[in-house]
Amino acid sequence: MMKKNAVIFDVDGTLWDSCQAVTNAWNTAISKYPQLQKNIVTLEMVRGFMGKTTPEIGSALFPDMEFEKMLSIMEQCGKEEEIEIAKNGGILFDDLESTLQILSQKYDLYIVSNCQAGYIEAFFDYHKLGHYFKDYENSGRTGKPKGENIKLILQRNPIAKAVYIGDTQGDYEATKIAQIPFIYAEYGFGTVNASVPSVKNMKQIPSQVDSILQS
Known about the structure:
This protein has 215 residues and is of the alpha/beta class. It has helices at 19-30, 43-49, 54-61, 67-88, 96-104, 119-127, 139-142, 146-156, 169-178, 205-213; strands at residues 4-9, 16-17, 91-92, 108-113, 133-138, 159-166, 182-185, 198-199.
């Protein structure tokens, strides 16, 4: 099979903003546990957690809780996320679909996220964008960190060269592990402490990708 250049995307803070949906979902899940009624989650808290793995988030939310119990609650939070997103979706960043259309004419598109299993599928189902992507992976399904999941995408697909687009320092560090270039989505939730190519909005992505993958 002929190899093709690829663009791999993060999800939260790169393709959309689902923070309000996630906040609603987590509070619904937490409300089912009487002992956690003081653990109300705010929108700002959720924004700060974006890009982290489920165990990292759970350990921050419930630092004194037994690990297995924490994971069980976070699993319930994930289920509520899927329900909430199926009902209301999230906020797509401006020009997302037109940007995907432009990119898909030249490149194969993929997703790698630290989300739980089922989250990307919910994103696809509500917003009808799944047909733009050849494959996807997440830490919830593999139990692996983002850098290793990027490697999995590179291994199982006919990819010549690839670039990853994300909005956090963790995204950048993952690309160092996977040994591919990185583009920082400045419009997202996080910051990156490195001198890397960046974009201020979706419309800038195609030209930045071209400059990296066609050089």
